[in-house]
Each structure stands twice: as structure tokens, then as C-alpha cells.
Amino acid sequence: xxxxxxxxxxxxxxxxxxxxxxxxxxxxxxxxxxxxxxxxxxxxxxxxxxxxxxxxxxxxxxxxxxxxxxxxxxxxxxxxxxxxxxxxxxxxxxxxxxxxxxxxxxxxxxxxxxxxxxxxxxxxxxxxxxxxxxxxxxxxxxxxxxxxxxxxxxxxxxxxxxxxxxxxxxxxxxxxxxxxxxxxxxxxxxxxxxxxxxxxxxxxxxxxxxxxxxxxxxxxxxxxxxxxxxxxxxxxxxxxxxxxxxxxxxxxxxxxxxxxxxxxxxxxxxxxxxxxxxxxxxxxxxxxxxxxxxxxxxxxxxxxxxxxxxxxxxxxxxxxxxxxxxxxxxxxxxxxxxxxxxxxxxxxxxxxxxxxxxxxxxxxxxxxxxxxxxxxxxxxxxxxxxxxxxxxxxxxxxxxxxxxxxxxxxxxxxxxxxxxxxxxxxxxx
Length: 429
Description:
Largest sheet: 12 strands, mixed
Number of helices: 12
Distance between the termini: 53 Å
Mean pLDDT: 92
Low-confidence stretches: 7-18
Order of helices and strands: HHHEEEEEEHEHEEEEEEHEHEEHEHEHHH
Helix content: 25-40%
CATH topology of the largest domain: Aminopeptidase
Radius of gyration: 24 Å
CATH architecture of the largest domain: 3-Layer(aba) Sandwich
Structural class: alpha/beta
CATH class of the largest domain: Alpha Beta
Strand content: 25-35%
CATH superfamily of the largest domain: Zn peptidases
């Protein structure tokens, strides 16, 4: 019995050693540096949206996805293209139930420069109660491309006024949402609205690794590839915001994870690898991406942001934003047992990091979506500066973090573990 027990222990150790050698061949400091050095190079000129520079970055990421052997998101392209429109209100007027509507109580989410609608226009009426979440409802309606008259409870006045002010970017869509701030039901109504509209093209880079037994269940690995571009020169004469840590580091991880899982060929759930655009401008890339999926089918999201420097605990460690909102962190800890790597809860709760990265949109829809980071947000001296360059990063530690993400996600990717959902109550905390 003792000999048999010793044999199984030896076999386990041999398998573990073989696994470590396999993952080290795919995820290592040399490969990290190769990808990172390209994305954060001066040739990319800071990857600012609406420039040829970010297009070069998108092409590089798409080529890496193709080389990894994952499938394009649509037809033969890894580019998830969409348009933003920047709108500014010009005028609004109308009547409802025989009474004149005030301009301040009318708002429109539309790609059109002018709208004239009434009860015969075929708009479906939807009421937003005080208890409802306005952004979630708007997102759900936008995904349908339908036309809606949205009656918004006056409890939502602050957010309604922010939407009303315009001067904001939103997705170009076929549908229109006319919003009226009122606690009444709409009977007869007539509303006219005019705004200026400027259209701006954007693109995410997305690849897919289809699952086996659970194809309709998705696990997402993501990071954003845009940054701040070129600005005024600093004292050293450098005007390029290279964004090596923010967030070429996260995209490097996504590319390497795509390569790793494609070689493993054992994912039961479908894996989606996404490099988002326009995070620095308001998270528009991830917002559009989230509208392409039924959130109930997304089992987990690993968003990766700023993992190029040591965490406050040193090497072989990182933190998870919103750790307490689901049990996903506990699952990752279980899978990492014995590796020497530790995931900690977010040590900077006052920074509200859970709501400041690309995980937030899906998290608000209930998805266990968290950001993994090492950034010391209370003392990150290169954050949003021209000094955020590859020379400030630790390639060996980055490789260790990426390997930890791969290992910790194993049971979720295999469909054996499913994290609990984000609840509306937890979002309030």
C-alpha cells in the first residue's frame, strides 16, 4: 500500500513538472517582451483612437490571434467594427396628454439629426420605475435596434440630465429611444427633437476558441489596446504616451492566453479573447462588445489591466477588483493552491476600480466580470505619463501573472466551476 501510494505521488509530481514545462514554453518572459515591445513602441505613437496608429495596433493584434489559431469574430475578420456618434442637442419640444413638455424633460438617444414622433409612429412604450436601473434598461433596448418611448421616473433625474446634456458619444444604431422624464403614462403625444451628429468609426479586436460540450457558455479574457497618443513633450523631450503598462500589458496577456488555450485544445466552454478600443474615452469598446452577447451566457470575464509592475505585496501576486461581489476569486484561489501565486482582494476600494475598467459593463448586467491588476494606484508614478514605457516593466513577473491567470481559470474554462453572479445589491456596495 505504501509503495502504491508513493507511486501515485511520484506520478502526480511528474505530471505537474510536465505541465509546468509545457506552460513555460508558451508563456515566458521572452514572449511577453516581444509582444509588449511592439504594442508600446514609439511606432505605435500611443495608440490613440481615430488615428492610423491605433489601426496599426489592431492589425498587429489580429495577426497574433490568427497566428495563435483562434477563429475570427465575423467572417474572415478579427475586427469588430462599429461606429460612435457624438451628439449635441439643438432643440426639443412636445406635448403629452394635452400638456406642453418642458425642453429639460425630453432626451433622445439616436443617430439621427432630427426626430418627429407621435403615438402613431409605432414606438413601443416602456416605463422606468424608481427601483429600475436606467443604464441597464437603455442597454437592453439598444440591443434590439427598435424604437422606444421611454417614460422615466423622476427619481432618475440626475442621470437623465446627464444624458440630456449631450456633447457625448454613443453607439450608432438603427433604433431610436425618446426619453421623457415623467411619472405619468403617455397617451397622446407629439415630440420633436434636433441635434448635431458626428460619426466616428472604431474597432475592437476579437477572436474565438469554440468550446466542446458547452459551446453556448462563454468565458472572456480581455484588455484595452487604446491609450492617450501624442501630447506635449515632457522635460526629456518625449511627447509619446506609450501606455506600456496601461494597457499594452493587459493585451499582451490576452494574446498569450489565446495562444496557450489554443494549444491546450481542452476548453469545454467557448473562450473569447478581446482587445477593446476607447477605454480611455469612456469604455465604449467594451460597452459595444457587451451588447453582442446574452449576458446570461457569459460565465466569467477576466479583464486584465496594468500587470507590468509589482503589486503592493511584491512579485507572484495580483489583486482582483470587486472580489467580494462574486465567489470567482475563491475559485481562482483554489486552482492556484500550491503554485506560490496569490490573488488578493482590491486594496484600493476608495478608487472604485471595479467600475473604472472594461469589466464594468458586463458586471452591471450580472456577469462575474472582474479586473486583474497589480497597479499600485495610490503611488503609480508613471500612470498616464510619457514615462509609461517598456523599460519600467518586469517581464518575468508579467509572465508569472499571465501563467497564474491561465492556471486559475482552468476549472471555469473546463465548465467544472461557475462563479456566482453579480447582484444589483452588491453593485450598490
